[in-house]
């Protein structure tokens, strides 16, 4: 069974569109995260959710919004997509030890 | 601005040798330290976590932490070609505020 799963794996869309990426974890973890990894492979945290409350909101545009319907899910909504949003987006989850387990990633390409 | 620095590499070592990967961090209140391995096109995979000064061993991997020097390292003994990947150092302060380093690319030559 996959511990952290994301859908879709690939997402190709045009500028200005709105898209969502879904994430689910079956590890029973309390905290989930979204990361962006750009073309230079730099991994940067975007959001963190603990028990359905936003803990960290890094300096990301407000076009990005996390939505957590329950502890096992953290979805990422992106409005008015821009070329610079093209990247790989990783979902992760962690227990209280802060050891994070990552999903397989979603490669977003904005044309 | 909290920073985590690593040599980008590539670090090349022959098969069977010890690979030494280094990481420094700027935030003195950092509490938790992690090493992740990322193969090309794949997601980061947790290798080691370390929370207190000293060494922590797990199989061929040893993590070393020195909070006074703000330094954490990862040693890989008996390096194998399958160890060739990018190694990411991650640092966590209070709460869920993780900062990742840029990664060191390791190449183990057969």
Describe the structure.
The complex is a heterodimer of chains A (111) and B (110). Chain A has no helices and eleven strands. In chain A, the strands form two sheets. In chain A, strands 2, 4, 5, 6, 9, 10 and 11 form a seven-stranded mixed beta sheet that branches. Chain A has a four-stranded antiparallel beta sheet with strand order 1-3-8-7, with no helix packed on it. Chain A is mainly β. With 110 residues, chain B is an all-beta fold. Chain B contains no helices and eleven strands. In chain B, strand 4 and strand 5 (45-50) form a beta hairpin. Chains A and B meet through strand 5 and strand 10 of A and strand 5, strand 9 and strand 10 of B.
| Oligomerization status of the protein chains | heterodimer
Global shape of chain B: globular
SS-derived structural category of chain A: mainly beta
Q: Kindly provide the radius of gyration of chain A, computed on alpha-carbon positions and rounded to a whole number of angstroms.
A: 13 Å
Average pLDDT of chain A: 92
- The count of DSSP E runs of length 2 or more, i.e. the number of strands of chain B, is 11
Query: What does the largest sheet of chain B look like?
Result: 6 strands, mixed
Main beta sheet of chain A: strand number and arrangement? Answer: 7 strands, mixed
Strands, helices and their partners?
The complex is a heterodimer of chains A (111) and B (110).
Chain A lengths: L3 E4 L2 E4 L5 E7 L5 E7 L5 E8 L2 E5 L6 E7 L2 E6 L8 E8 L5 E3 L3 E5 L1
Parallel strand pairs in A: 2-11
Antiparallel strand pairs in A: 1-3, 3-8, 4-5, 4-9, 5-6, 7-8, 9-10, 9-11
Chain B lengths: L3 E2 L5 E4 L4 E7 L6 E7 L6 E6 L3 E5 L2 E6 L4 E6 L8 E8 L5 E3 L3 E6 L1
Parallel strand pairs in B: 2-11
Antiparallel strand pairs in B: 1-3, 3-8, 4-5, 4-9, 6-7, 7-8, 9-10, 9-11
């Amino acid at each position: 069974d996959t511990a952290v799963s994301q859908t879709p794996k690939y997402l190709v869309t045009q500028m200005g569109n709105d898209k969502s990426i879904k994430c689910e974890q079956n590890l029973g973890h309390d905290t989930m995260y979204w990361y962006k990894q750009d073309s230079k492979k730099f991994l940067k945290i975007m959001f963190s959710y603990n028990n359905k409350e936003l803990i960290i909101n890094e300096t990301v545009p407000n076009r990005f919004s996390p939505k957590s319907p329950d502890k096992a899910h953290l979805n990422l909504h992106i409005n008015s997509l821009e070329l610079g949003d093209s990247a790989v987006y990783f979902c992760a989850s962690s227990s209280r030890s802060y050891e994070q387990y990552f999903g397989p990633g979603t490669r977003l390409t904005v044309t | 601005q909290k920073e985590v620095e690593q040599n980008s590499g590539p670090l090349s070592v022959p098969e069977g040798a010890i690979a030494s990967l280094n990481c420094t961090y700027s935030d003195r209140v950092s509490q938790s330290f992690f090493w992740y391995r990322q193969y090309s096109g794949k997601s980061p995979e947790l290798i080691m976590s370390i929370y207190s000064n000293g060494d922590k061993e797990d199989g061929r991997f040893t993590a070393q932490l020195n909070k006074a020097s703000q330094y954490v390292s990862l040693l890989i003994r008996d390096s194998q070609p399958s160890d060739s990947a990018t190694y990411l150092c991650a640092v966590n302060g209070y709460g869920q505020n993780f900062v990742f380093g840029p990664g060191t690319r390791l190449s183990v030559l057969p």
